[in-house]
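Sample intake — Mitochondrial import inner membrane translocase subunit
Collected from: Pleurotus ostreatus
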Amino acid sequence: MSDLFKSSSSPADMASRKEALMDSVRSEVALANAQELINKTNEKCYLKCVPKPGTSLSSSEQTCLSRCLDRYMEAFNICSRAYIGRINKERSGSQFQ
């Protein structure tokens, strides 16, 4: 990574390296967000749906967990679509400035 910003690089080469680095950072952030979502949903849904932990889950606990996780995923997908739409709108707006 030390040669990422060498002064001998052309402006186009620098721009492509910068974009590659930004893509890598975006991917890492997306992965971290997905892991956080999984951890939070597991924690929140478990606390909500399993009041007395035992050796197995009852059918009502399984149903509760399934519905809880579905709600979290649905909310995450809605937020993700809105965020991606905003990013795309900002990108397309900056292309014409």
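Post-analysis note: The chain has a mean pLDDT of 86.
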